[in-house]
Every structure is written in structure tokens, then in C-alpha cells.
Amino acid sequence: MTGTEKKTPATEAQTSRALAQMLGKFAALVLLLILALLIERYCSFKPEPFGSDAKIVSIDGDTLRAGDGSEYRLFGVDAPELHQTCKEANGKSWACGRAAKAKLTTLIKGGKVQCEERAKDRYGRSIAVCSAEGVPDLGQALVAQGYAIDLGGATGNPYKDEEAEAKAAKRGIWRGTFERPSDWRQAHPRL
What does the DSSP 8-state code read for residue 81? Predict the structure, then answer.
């Protein structure tokens, strides 16, 4: 036989079948990619900014709850837990967790709370940078006033300068001693 062999009908059928399978796999891959893009575009949950009449409350020193029940953990900060206490310079205990919640409540009193989601935490809360009337960044304000610490870690250190200033001025939790909120949570796990 020479290089110009004739293909038999069985060989042509196999070639056609293989080509059809390859095209089918390629088409399926393209469809999956298009479906993934459509899901990302139209089905991803992006919380709407709070309206001016929305009911927003602080549930602790670094978490907000909207009227619809959604929760927003402030990005880049960690505030004392609600039942956590700290020590004054003279050794006297004070309810720093409740004070952090009260400070956050004061900061959001002006209304017009807006949150921009950055991620979700293990409890399903949105991790967000939030602002309120007259307060461009609630997390930054809490750290600057000494009622939260810069979280550091994966978030970088977005508020390290504010923390250093609050510490030097002995504001809030820096006026005495305190247990890092993460250490306090570890010693007092949720039931």
C-alpha cells in the first residue's frame, strides 16, 4: 500500500465519533464556564447599603445587626467581648466589653450606616468596612478611641497608627491592662 490509503467506512466513523466527543467535551466546558460566570454575576449575595431609615444596632463592640437580621463584623478590628472586663491602671476592673459596645452605639447614632462587604466569617457574618454619619470608618474610630485593637494577621495592619496613638494616649482599654479579645474568647468559648 502507498501513503494514499483509503479509509474504510469503519475508520471514518471512529474518527468522526472521536471528533464529536472532543467537540462535545469542549462545548460542555464552555457551557460550564458561562454558567459559572452567570452565577457569579447574578446570584452572588451582595448586601444592599442600609437605608437612612434602617434599624441598625450594635450587638457588641465590633458587630452590627441590621433590621433584616444580617450581621456585619467590622473589618480589621477586634473589640473586647461583651462580658469581658479590663483593669484600670490602679487594678480596678471595668466592663470594657460593654464600654466598647456603647462606643459603637454612639458612633452609629448619627445614622446613614453603610457597609462594604470584604468577606464572610465562620459564623456567616459579613466582614465589612462600615461608616456612619460623620464617621468614615467605624473600625478606625473604635481603634483610635481605644475601644478596639488592630486585628493584624491576614488583614494586614490597617489601623496600626491609630492603635499606637491610642496606646500612647492611654485611651480606652489602653488606660490599664486587658486580655486580647482573641485570648479571652479562647478562655471563654461559646456554648
Answer: P
Q: What is the mean pLDDT of the chain?
A: 86
pTM of the full structure: 0.71
**DSSP 8-state code for residue 68:** T
The per-residue pLDDT for range 23-41, each reduced to its tens digit, is 888 888 888 778 777 776 6
Specify whether the CB–CB gap between 102 and 121 falls below 8 A: no
Euclidean distance between CA atoms 124 and 18, whole angstroms: 47
- Cβ pair 77, 142 in contact under 8 A: yes
Distance CA 180, CA 81 (A): 10
